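1st attempt posting a full record on here, be nice pls
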Amino acid sequence: MQQPKVQIQPKVPGEWNTSLWGCFSNCGNCIATLCCPCITYGQIANIVDQGKTSVFSGGRNYAILMYFTCGCCLYSCFARSKLRYMFNLPPSPCGCADCLVHTCCEPCALCQEYRELQSRGFDMAVGWDLNTSQAGSTSVHAPVSQMMQGQMTNNQQNYNYQNAGYNNQNMNHQNAPPNQTMGQNDAYNNQNEYQINDPQEQVQY
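the predicted structure (as tokens):
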């Protein structure tokens, strides 16, 4: 059975799969982020918020902050914090705070977060809902033939256990000591003789 590719919330501390300076490992995303970072942020926010923030609303909020307040880096750093919590990642690089990374290297930080989600098995083009639904469909449902085969196997095992108990009971009865069997027969014969010789049972003419 094929296992889902999406991996969420590991129990042990993880590491970033790419560095902050590895933007050119995905040139398409690098160019898109330089030209329109609001789209990249919207895709990241949709995943780290687990579908609560849509790609459109996340990108719209980022674009408003970028063009009117220049505070987009302070807004996007929260997505990096959620991403690190989701995969138990350390502050990077060199233990720098998330807000500092986004303030100094906003495009590089967005590219790194985008690549990290991709390396974890997320398809950034379809969003959170389709990613999780595809993962659930491959991990939950089993083929019908396997379910029927498992049920038949359980029924056969129960039948074998019942037969084994019945056979053991018969063997114990057959293997009883001869003295015990003769004693049971003598008691039965004595009871019959007592009933025949009972005066109350004799017929009076």
